[in-house]
Design a protein that fits this description.
The strands form three sheets. The chain has an eight-stranded mixed β-sheet. Strands 6-7 form a two-stranded antiparallel sheet. The protein has a two-stranded parallel ribbon with strand order 9-11. Helix 1 (12-23) links the parallel strand 1 (3-7) and strand 2 (27-32). It is built from six helices and twelve strands. The chain is globular. The protein has helices spanning 12-23, 46-49, 122-129, 146-164, 194-212, 256-268, and strands at 3-7, 27-32, 111-116, 134-137, 168-172, 179-181, 184-185, 218-223, 229-230, 239-240, 254-255, 275-280. Helix 1 (12-23) packs across helix 6 (256-268), helix 3 packs across helix 4 and helix 4 (146-164) packs parallel to helix 5. By secondary structure, it is of the alpha/beta class. It has one domain (3-280): Rossmann fold (3-Layer(aba) Sandwich), CATH 3.40.50.720. The structure holds NADP nicotinamide-adenine-dinucleotide phosphate (NAP). NADP nicotinamide-adenine-dinucleotide phosphate (NAP) is lined by residues 7-8, 10-14, 31-34, 57, 65, 118-120, 138-141, 172, 174-175, 223-227, 229.
């Protein structure tokens, strides 16, 4: 593995995924709608990785942005400039699920190329993805109906990645689409808030698009626990499960940094195929 394209790279999960992948020596193409707003991706620091104060995905809508200049703006940065929490990130800090530390990592003298793109447009996906070994999508929008955005993105990723001959896709899912009990998704449990359910149903519809895909795309959707994620320090450790909520080990949240470790692991060394997988922390 040496080249990973990340859609939604300027978001909370995206910033951590970029830093994680580059620190392992991968070359990352960071896809954002407006590169001018995401120059921080070229030199991630604890400050730029932190979630800005303000709306969170599950609670509030954010204003839309003008999208996709026709010509991608590109800039590069070397991994030597990357430090998070005062230390270098590295694949060797993983290990909670028994993977070899750093195993299978092909150092390509990694760096970031920042490009404009639209994850809901198959032509844009194909254009930015060509030549990559794997794709990660952590794109999200709250200012359009969830089902509209996630279904459009899933369709564009299926078609665009096929055109670009990229065979592996790792998506960020949501824990509320996991089963709380056999056959019962968390968002269908009694008392689940209606607004959050509507958002979750968009993710569920995205899953159906992926399940119906006939292009041979090797996808996996990683669903964090149904809690807010935070900017706690990276531990490099996590659990993968199946389609059910993983038993709680007492944690109230899950760090974006560890979610990013799992996303990059599954892009780099796939272990799950064409399925929804729960991911959660180890502590407790
Ligand atoms: N507990 C859980 O299960 C849980 C918790 C957190 C997140 N999640 C899921 O993880 C995913 C990522 O969440 P997040 O917190 O990182 O979201 P986020 O901070 O809102 O970031 C989303 C990013 O997607 C980008 N984007 C929007 N439309 C796009 C498009 N058409 N093309 C390319 N990029 C586009 C946005 O770009 P701009 O910068 O241009 O606006 C933004 O930077 C979401 O699907 C969310 O539902 C799950």
């Amino acid at each position: 593995m040496s080249k990973i394209v990340i859609f939604g790279a300027g978001g909370r999960a995206g910033r951590h995924a970029v830093a994680e992948a580059v620190a392992r020596g991968h070359h990352v193409t960071a896809v954002v709608r407006d590169p001018a707003r995401h120059q921080h991706l070229l030199s991630p620091t604890p400050a730029t990785l932190a979630t800005p104060a303000g709306p969170t995905p599950a609670t509030l809508a954010t204003p839309g942005d003008p999208t996709s200049p026709a010509t991608p703006a590109t800039q590069d940065v070397t991994p030597a400039s990357l430090a998070v929490d005062g230390r270098r990130l590295g694949g060797g800090e993983r290990g909670g699920h028994g993977r070899p530390a750093g195993g299978g990592i092909a150092s390509a003298g990694g760096g970031v190329t920042l490009v404009a793109g639209d994850v809901t447009d198959a032509g844009s996906v194909a254009a930015v993805a060509v030549g990559h070994d794997a794709a990660i999508s952590v794109a999200a929008r709250l200012d359009v109906p969830s089902a509209e955005f996630y279904v459009a993105a899933a369709r564009a990723l299926v078609e665009g990645l096929a055109r670009a001959a990229v065979g592996r896709l790792v998506l960020a899912g949501i824990g509320t689409t996991l089963e709380a009990a056999p056959g019962v998704m968390v968002h269908d449990t009694p008392g689940f808030p209606e607004e959050a359910r509507a958002f979750s149903l968009g993710h569920a519809a995205e899953l159906e698009v992926l399940r119906d895909a006939s292009t041979g795309l090797d996808w996996v959707v990683l669903a964090p626990p149904p809690v807010f994620l935070d900017d706690a320090p990276r531990t490099g450790r996590y659990r993968l499960g199946g389609g059910q909520v993983l038993p709680s080990s007492g944690e109230a949240t899950f760090p974006y940094a560890d979610f990013a470790v799992a996303l990059v692991d599954e892009a780099q060394t796939p272990t799950r195929h064409r399925t929804l997988v729960a991911v959660a922390g180890l502590q407790g």
